[in-house]
Amino acid sequence: MRSGVLNAGGPFDLRATTNAADGTYAGIIRLVKQAQTSQAPFVRLADRYALWFLPLTLAVAGVAWAVGGPARAVAVLVVATPCPLILAAPVALVSGLSAAARRGVVVKDGGVLERLAECTTLLVDKTGTLTAGQPAVTAIVPAGSVPPEEILRLAASVDQVSGHVLAGAVVRAAAERKCQLALPENVTEVAGQGIAGTVSGRHVMLGRAEWAGVRGEPPWAKKVRRRERLDGALTVFVAADHEPAGALLLEDRIRPDARSTIRALRRGGIERIVLATGDRADVAVAVGAITGVDQVFAGLTPAGKLDLVRREQRQASVIMTGDGINDAPALALADVGVAMGARGSTASSEAADAVLTVDRLSRLGDVAMLARRTRRIARQSVLAGMGMSVAAMGAAAAGLLPAVWGALLQEAIDVAVILNALRALRPVAGGPRLPAADVALTRRFRDEHEAIWADIDEVRAGCSAAATQPRR
């Protein structure tokens, strides 16, 4: 079987209306292959310099032969070996790959690292990248006299035996609040509607509004719908003893480090950051506003993400990040595709050029900075090595450097450029070194900044809880 879905409910009848070759999964694989074949060929750094080095060498050797005979021409050819091209650039790139791996980013080859140094635009997926990637209960809105903690306890007790993705979030929330759960009895689950069961003698139903017996839009239900629209939340209604008890609001929460991640990416040389997601527009716009991205595109299909990558590539080189199979075609088409491998799908990791092995997008900013430094070191090594070789060729053509001494000099040049290329192994410096007191002050400011955001989250949660309390 080439693809499938997970049945979270009871048994059902299934009828296949098409074959595997025409399915969604096969269509995505076709998009990946088309994107991979449409990438423009990349000219390596060493290849660009080799285009003019060989003709120059032959010209100098010819002049030396004409002026001083074959001995001088041989001396020119001895010192003109292209070892800086053959050794310096690959050593620098391999060193850069090793340094990137230590930062938790596996880059598949040196060509990817060179392309990464050119990229200035980042397309980033939302779910699992800027958000936690799993829903969490953020608010409980009671309908009447049933306290919020009791609503959560009843809902989580029934959800213990459910395989639905939201059920796990409800049970985790109850565990975090230390609710004493009971084993449910007579549990019935209807796909697309909800689940029902008996908890401590009380009949509990949770799921859609109609399933939980919510009729019309009473004031508390209007509040739930308003919060649902404003926060982009998912809603689970709860009924106890055939009367609506309240509702649970669940959100895929933004990562605490999302804003600092965007700042780190900009420090790494990324000039434009675009949020590209298949989620609803209201949710995507809210996430984009909070995290500080430059533009938001929502409701995108895999083909839509491909079109967006093509549009952005007309302006600049593009990095695409994602973790799901729907992102695989765009990852393959982008100049550099980066998969969130710590939690992402195998298809996205295979289509990508680099894989984040840690669940932190900010490492991509570090590696982008590292890629630029690696390219700079490789270019320095190549130019310095070839410059010294050209100078030695001139000396040999003038009869000042015999072939034997030229061979020794060429070995010295090779060692020098290799040692310089190995500098790419060193960690990326975030800037000039600061005195110890300034470093401590910077760290304290960073910790206080993160604490401020944590306090804001606590205040927001407290206001939400207060808003759910019945007025006296």
Kindly summarize this structure in a few lines.
This protein is 52% helix and 15% strand. The chain contains 16 helices and 13 strands. Mean pLDDT is 77; it is low at 38-43, 430-446, 448-453 and 463-472.
Please, could you describe this protein's structure?
With 472 residues, the protein is an alpha/beta fold. The chain folds into 4 domains: 45-93 and 369-425; 118-132 and 255-368, HAD superfamily/HAD-like (Rossmann fold, 3-Layer(aba) Sandwich); 138-251, Calcium-transporting ATPase, cytoplasmic domain N, CATH 3.40.1110; 434-465. The chain is built from 16 helices and 13 strands. It has helices spanning 24-37, 45-68, 70-79, 83-102, 110-118, 148-159, 165-176, 219-231, 258-267, 281-291, 302-313, 328-333, 346-351, 362-397, 403-421, 436-468, and strands at 105-107, 121-124, 136-142, 185-190, 194-199, 202-207, 234-240, 243-251, 272-276, 295-297, 318-322, 336-340, 354-356. A 7-stranded mixed beta sheet has the order 1-13-12-11-2-9-10, with helices on both faces. Strands 3-8-7-6-5-4 form a 6-stranded antiparallel beta sheet, sandwiched between helices. Helix 14 (362-397) runs antiparallel to helix 15. The longest helix has 36 residues, at 362-397. 42% of the residues are buried. Mean pLDDT is 77; it is low at 38-43, 430-446, 448-453 and 463-472.
